[in-house]
Specification:
This protein has helices at about 5-50, 55-75, 135-145, 180-260, 265-295, 310-325, 345-360, 390-395, 420-430, 455-470, 495-505, 520-525, 545-555, 575-580, 590-610; strands at about 85-95, 100-105, 115-120, 125, 130-135, 150-155, 160-165, 305, 330-335, 340-345, 365-375, 380-385, 435-440, 445-450, 485-490, 510-515, 530-535, 560-565, 585. By secondary structure, it is α/β, with parallel strands linked by helices. The strands form 5 sheets. It has a 5-stranded antiparallel sheet with strand order 5-2-1-7-6, sandwiched between helices. The chain is flat, with a radius of gyration of 42 Å.
Length: about 600
């Protein structure tokens, strides 16, 4: 008997539902992998393009974030997962800010501004580009039953990014995580966040590499430029040196060939040319040496208190003959309150001579002047003339080494083309600067501005001197149990002098009370007990020696050591000061190490008396 089996029918009934579920599951898996592959390909292609170009960091980061929202929007809008529209965006928050801005929304012509409803609060948020959003709202969207916000990243500047996905404007059945395949959708979003973070890290690595390459390229360009400048320097130097040397050798040869005869005017002219060429050659070599020392930061400067009036008169005396030869008038103008300045007198003289000789060289008639005035904490030395002036084009290249302006006032260019460069750099070493104003056919004004109060290298030099002297001169009361350092009452009306001694003595460890006249001194003495008084002999409201005598007549101040510091340096001046009642006498300009020794000596006496 024929038998039949019903097994296939039973298998068909049993397996039909699992088979459909398996196929649907495979479709979702394919959707997930395809969407992630598209995202990864887009990010990879973009990073490759960035690595081969010089895109800016802000632009490339923006492109990555835009790719992320676009690709995620496409994937979640697939009809396979139950709806056809969603809003995908990114909000950015500046460091420490609780209100951010929606900066990226997926590109789609069908998208319109959308509302996100937060179930816990019922609050409605409009999601569109440039719309503000609060951090607390995003945190609620992240923790609600149907999650719609995810923390994305924080960059090196502290800017934070949040990913948002909104489907609440559509039917309730379109909730992103409502169906059975929500885990796959969540997996897509999670993987997207990971890919975004990884892409941003790679982007920063690429930018760092590009920056390093750019720095290397800049370094190579700088080396090439330095090499060109070196070759130019050698060529210009060779030319400049050969010119005066040719004159020296040529005219010396003529004198040797003809036999030198002092009475011959022609031979005297030869000697003058040889002398002028020798001076030119010496000036060139000095300028080159100065510039090279400045560039190597090896130029030695000696900081002193400079009598500005005396130095300027000496400088003009050196220019006087050259100006008189051209029929020019020299003028010196100085404001009444200009007295002293802390500077290197040799370098200050060099700067002024460079400017004055240039002014004389470019002036055929009229006046060359030097004006010194106080201006906002600076001393301004202005060298002005009524000469040819300098065009804007020439001004732009005036401070380049070996660059010279054509001089219509002379038959040929004179000088090395280094004087203004050296002057500018010397002014900068002094903590100041060099300024230029000029009008063609009307004249020029070159101004050196130097700070009255020591700053920069000047201040550092004073402090270094104090530290060196501190090793030589033992500090008073070094082994004492006193809780405060000895007080020095400095009576000095001159600002540079006061600044110099104040900075120096404070660096040595003293407390310095600086007063500028006799009245302030008497007021100060009622409040403090100084270990030493440093008394300037010439004060605006009194004679320092008369003040000393008054103090010696007062039992309260009779035993305070007083050191007179004065410009009086003639024979008998010391005796005059000692007779007035001072303990010691020190002349200006102040020898700082001697000052330190005297202060230490008399402070030590006070400390010993306090111990007793």
């Amino acid at each position: 008997m024929q038998q039949s089996s019903s097994l296939p029918e039973r298998n068909s009934q049993i397996d039909s539902k699992p088979l459909l579920s398996t196929i649907e599951h495979l479709r979702y898996q394919l959707w997930l992998e395809t969407t992630l592959n598209k995202l990864q390909i887009r990010l990879k292609d973009y990073l490759i393009s960035v690595a081969t170009t010089n895109s800016s960091g802000m632009a490339t980061e923006a492109e990555i974030l835009q790719i992320v929202v676009n690709e995620l929007h496409k994937g979640l809008s697939d009809s396979l997962i139950g709806f056809t529209q969603c809003i995908v965006g990114i909000a950015l928050f500046e460091p420490q800010q609780t209100v951010g801005q929606i900066s990226y929304i997926a590109h789609s012509p069908s998208l319109t501004p959308n509302l996100e409803v937060i179930p816990q609060t019922g609050k409605k948020l409009t999601l569109r580009v440039n719309k503000s959003i609060k951090l607390k709202d995003l945190e609620q969207m992240e923790t609600q039953e149907y999650q719609s916000a995810w923390y994305l990243f924080e960059d090196s500047r502290g800017v934070k990014g949040w990913l948002m996905i909104n489907t609440s404007s559509f039917s309730f059945d379109c909730r992103l995580f409502k169906d059975a395949f929500a885990p796959l959708k969540l997996q897509l979003i999670t993987k997207t966040v990971e890919n975004c973070r990884a892409a941003l890290v790679q982007l920063r690595q690429i930018q760092s590499w590009q920056q390093h390459c750019q720095q290397l390229a800049n370094f190579n360009q700088e080396l090439e430029r330095t090499n060109q400048l070196k070759n130019q320097f050698l060529a210009n130097t060779s030319h400049e040196i050969r010119t005066p040397l040719s004159s020296i050798i040529g005219f010396t040869h003529l004198l040797l060939a003809q036999g030198y005869e002092p009475d011959k005017a022609r031979h005297q002219e030869y000697l003058h040319i040889i002398q002028s060429s020798g001076k030119h050659l010496l000036g060139l070599i000095n300028d080159i040496l100065d510039l090279s020392k400045i560039e190597a930061n090896q130029l030695e400067v000696q900081w002193e208190i400079v009598d500005v009036s005396t130095l300027c008169r000496n400088v003009l005396a050196l220019v006087k003959e050259k100006a008189a030869h051209k029929g020019l008038t020299l003028r010196l103008e100085m404001e009444a309150d200009v007295k002293n300045l802390i500077a290197d007198p040799l370098r200050l003289k060099q700067m002024l001579l460079n400017l004055l000789f240039n002014a004389v060289k470019f002036t055929t008639k009229g006046t060359v002047g030097l004006l010194i005035a106080n201006q906002d904490g600076f001393l301004r030395f202005t060298v002005w003339d009524t000469g040819t002036g300098i065009s804007d084009e020439d001004q732009s290249r005036l401070f380049r080494p070996y660059s010279q302006v054509v001089n219509p006032a002379a038959g040929r260019n004179e000088g090395t083309g280094l004087g203004l460069v050296v002057t500018q750099k010397l002014a900068e070493i002094h903590g100041g600067c060099l300024e230029l104003e000029s009008v063609v056919n009307q004249g020029s004004r070159f101004s050196i501005l130097l700070p009255i109060k020591p700053t920069g290298k000047v201040l550092a030099a004073i402090e270094t001197t104090a530290e060196y002297d501190l090793e030589i001169v033992s500090h008073p009361c070094a082994n004492d149990t006193m809780t405060s350092p000895p007080v020095i009452l400095l009576v000095e009306d001159d600002l540079p002098n006061g600044e110099l001694m104040g900075i120096y003595l404070k660096r040595l460890g003293y407390q310095v009370n600086w007063v500028k006249n006799g009245a302030e001194m008497l007021t100060n003495l009622q409040e403090i007990e100084p270990a030493v008084i440093l008394m300037d002999v010439s004060l605006p409201d009194a004679n320092g020696l008369n003040l000393v005598q008054q103090l010696r007549e007062n039992p309260k101040y009779k035993h305070i050591p007083i050191i007179a510091q004065t410009a009086m340096a003639m024979k008998g001046d010391r005796e005059t000061c000692l007779a007035a009642g001072v303990n010691e006498y020190i002349s200006k300009p102040i020898d700082l190490q001697l000052l330190a020794s005297l202060i230490a000596k008399y402070s030590q006496i006070i400390c010993q008396n306090q111990d007793l």
